[in-house]
Amino acid sequence: MASLDQYVSDNALKTSLLASATSAKSADALFSSFNAAGLPESSGAHQFVKELYSRAPRKSKKHHSSGESSRKHEKDSKALRSQQFGLLLEDDDNSVEVVKKKKKSKDKEKEKGKGMEDRSAKRDRQLRKREYGEDEWASDEEEKARKRRRAEEEAMDREEEGRRPPDDDMDAGMDGLEKGEDEDLRREREREEDLKERDEFAKRMQERDKQKTKKIVEDRSSKNPAASDAAVRRQLADDPNARDAVLPDLRLRSRQEYLTKREIQQIELLRKEIQDEEALFHGMKVSRREQHELDRKKQILKLAEERLKINDHYEGYQLPEDYITEQGKIDRKKKENVLYKRYDEAKPKEGDFTTDIDQWEAAQTKNSTFKTGCFGQA
Predict the structure, then answer these.
(1) Hey, is 89 helix, strand or coil?
(2) What is the pTM of this model?
(3) Where are the alpha helices (DSSP H) in the chain?
(4) What is the largest CA-CA distance in the chain?
(5) Which are the contacts of 277, defined by CB distance < 8 A and separation ≥ 6?
(6) What are the pLDDT digits (tens) for 54-76?
(7) pLDDT in tens, 348-357
């Protein structure tokens, strides 16, 4: 506990001595303060105070010198500016001529001079704020120099306006019209320009895509039925007269295809209807009329299914159809059928007995057939 008290006391004494030495103006003043606090007056005490005063840190007085240097620098800059304005002094005759020219200027030149005068006045106000505090004679001379310089600038601008060709005036008028353009018209014009640029960009992108797209050659050989059909459709699309001439045949063919699909659909609906009625009335006593209607539906379904099973294929050789039409023209599709059609065996009938030889031939035919493509893909 005693060592802690001694440590605290020593630190407090050291801090107090340093603070007094730092704030003291001289060694004598520091000794006087220490003497009043109880320091005895002796040669050793005087030597201690002088050594402490010399080693103690204290505030520098550089801020005074910096303030003086800044004021000196400001004064020198003002003097230099005054000299620069003094070089622009001229005779009063020039100012009189400038005033005469100013009276003969046009309204447009007056407005331009007024704008320049406003800017010059603003600059003059700024200069006057910075030059506040100079003597009166220098301020008067600078004011005169500023007026003369302003007059010279206006005169030079008027001379340039007089030397400018008429095309410049026309361009200036057009610029004025552009500036004075209505806001709505400007927005509409910008919108139209944007749309035009967008369309041009889209067109360029389409052309670039066409160039990059891989062009596939269409197979127009007569051996490919799909290619021949595509050629016929392309020809009909390009020739309106041919399209009108073949349109009745196309309608008839479309009607026949529709009736074939419709027949299969109605047979399937009739089969579903008979199955529903049998399941609904199973084990129930029905009237004679209902039983007669059910038997009639079954008979119709039986006849329709037998008709679909009829095989019109003739088991033998048949002469090919004539591919020359009544008008003396060659039917290309019939001619292709004659050239490329192969022998087709008759379809086996239901209930026919299949021998072992037939099964073996079917298996050998299936195994010997060469197929291309990925394994497992249909």
Answers:
(1) coil
(2) 0.28
(3) 2-23, 27-37, 43-55, 62-86, 92-103, 107-130, 136-163, 166-179, 183-212, 225-238, 240-280, 288-308, 332-340, 356-368
(4) 156
(5) 294, 297
(6) 877 766 544 444 556 667 767 77
(7) 666 667 788 8
State the Cα torsion 124-128-130-131 to the nearest 10°. Answer: 130
Please indicate whether residue 283 or residue 85 has the higher confidence score (pLDDT): 283
Question: In the numeric block, which tokens belong to residue 309?
Answer: 């099973």
Phi then psi for 330, rounded to 5 degrees? Answer: -95, 125
How far CA 120 is from CA of 46, 137, 174, 267, in Å, comes to: 69, 21, 28, 103
Q: Which residue has the tokens 């074939």?
A: 260
Structure tokens at 202: 């889209």
Write down the domain spans for the chain.
2-55, 91-164, 238-310
What is the C-alpha to C-alpha distance for residues 144 and 336, in angstroms, rounded to an integer?
110
Contact of 298 with 274, CB cutoff 8 Å = yes
Residues present in the chain in total: 378
What gap in Å lies between CA 216 and CA 130, rounded to an integer? Answer: 82
Q: Token pair of 97, please? A: 């001529």
By the 8 A CB rule, do 145 and 137 touch?
Answer: no
Q: How many CA atoms lie within 13 A of 252 on its CB side?
A: 5
